[in-house]
Amino acid sequence: MSYDFIIVGAGIGGITIAEQLANILNKKVLIIEKRNHIGGNCYDYYNEDGILVHKYGPHIFHTNNRRVYNYLSLYTSWIIYNHKVLGKIENTLAPIPFNLISIDKCMPQDADKIKKALLDEYAVNDSIKILDMKKSSRREIKQLADYVYENVFLHYTEKFWNLKPEELDPSVTGRVPVNVSYDCRYFQDMYQGIPSEGYTVMFNNMISNHNINILLEKDYKDILTVDYENKRVLFYDEEFDGEIIFTGMIDEFFDYKYGHLPYRSLIFVDETIDETKFQENSTINYPNDYHFTRITEYKYLTRQVHDKTTIQFEYPIKYDPNADEGNIPYYPIPQAKNEELYEKYKAYSEEFENVTFLGRLAEYQYMNMDKVVEKALDLVDKFIDKSK
After folding, report:
1. What three-state secondary structure class fits 37?
2. According to the model, what pLDDT value does residue 388 have?
């Protein structure tokens, strides 16, 4: 069978592109996926106890992009779910990001003075980065910023990245806010939820078109050969004149020509407990204690009724491309030297006219699900315009 498009990676980006190409442009699409399932890191499944879990950590869909939400809503209904996170700080569980409730819980002796200072200097519902708070002339606000930095950010960062904060791009610290409100939601987006039957069902709905073929448990290198000298790609040793969408690691595609781009990975450990509930919230972060960073209890997300419950521990580790199966690149490491290395690959990639790189690994940047879908839809728009 001949194909118009070959997509490497059956994650949310690759599946979105395949669906659009097949249904709108009637193109024949091949998706190549090295894992034994579709959905990439969004994949969910029922474990042996019949509890729906996310294999690669909790994925909560949230967006302010109406086009993205309406698009995915063609293939799923939603459980309206507003994610909330608690952090264990000493012996207290407090809302993360820090808000007025967190101040009451963790800093009771100074809470009134700190909250007054915040409301004097900022507006209700403002979200202020702790680096900006540190610049305040108010002693109470600086006190709060120092407390959040030390108890919420510093040790969690060292655990997660295995780096000190000053070794990371300042934008990492900049993402740590304090919310001047009693709103405990982790995200403030207009649309928030979980696919009612799970992500995997949604993805299967998206790729039901007969124009889409999928090869699972297949390394793309067994099928595609990159001719670096002539800037072309061969499909089973024949030059492929269609379009290739690559969603994997850009440095791998170019055989690590300039060196390896570093990532952080995670180990997930699931445990099913013979109780209806384990903890008082869906996700609890542990910034200062233990080797794991958080525990997620999935029944909170899915609203599933079951007499048992499954919890999931997350342990950050270094990504090792030579490690056994299970070591997956999750997070690009935000450092200037890594960005410079990526820019070399990006410049080189532009010499390959029929290859497009899309997604977190291909563009070496952290992206939420909605951003990947947005970029995928925008890319298909370009193909639609070319076809006119």
Report:
1. coil
2. 74
How many residues are recorded in the chain?
A: 388
Pairing mode of beta strands 177-179, 52-54 = unpaired
Joined tokens for residue 34: 């090295």
Question: What's residue 295's pLDDT?
Answer: 98
Which residue type does 209 have?
N
Find the mean pLDDT for residues 29-46: 97
User: Which residue's entry shows tokens 């269609």?
Assistant: 242
Q: How far apart are CA 32 and CA 6, in angstroms?
A: 8
3-state SS, residue 232: strand
Question: Residue 148, class by beta-carbon neighbours within 10 Å (0-12 exposed, 13-18 middle, 19+ buried)?
Answer: buried
Would strands 294-297 and 243-246 be described as parallel, antiparallel, or unpaired? unpaired
Could you give phi then psi for residue 87, rounded to 5 degrees? -115, 135
Closest listed residue to residue 119, CA positions, set 147, 143, 140: 140
Helix (H) or strand (E) holding 332: strand 331-332
**Interatomic CA distance for residues 320 and 331, integer angstroms:** 13
Q: How far is CA 261 from CA 161, 212, 274, 319, in A?
A: 15, 31, 42, 10
Name the 3-class secondary structure at 345: helix
- Rounded to whole angstroms, how far apart are CA atoms 379 and 9? 16
At residue 172, the pLDDT reads 78
| Residue 325 confidence (pLDDT) | 59
CB–CB of 119/111 below 8 Å? no
Lowest-pLDDT choice from 82-96, 128-142, 191-205: 128-142
Q: Which two tokens stand for residue 28?
A: 């024949």
pLDDT-above-70 percentage for the chain: 98
388, with CB counted inside 10 A (0-12, 13-18, 19+), is: exposed
Measuring CA to CA, how many Å separate 60 from each of 85, 276, 316, 370?
12, 22, 20, 10
State pLDDT tens for residues 297-320: 999 999 999 999 999 999 999 998
Find how far residue 284's CA is from the centre of its chain: 18
CA dist., res. 68 & res. 385, Å (int): 19
CB 163 within 8 A of CB 154: no
What count of other Cβ atoms lies within 10 Å of the Cβ of residue 105?
A: 16
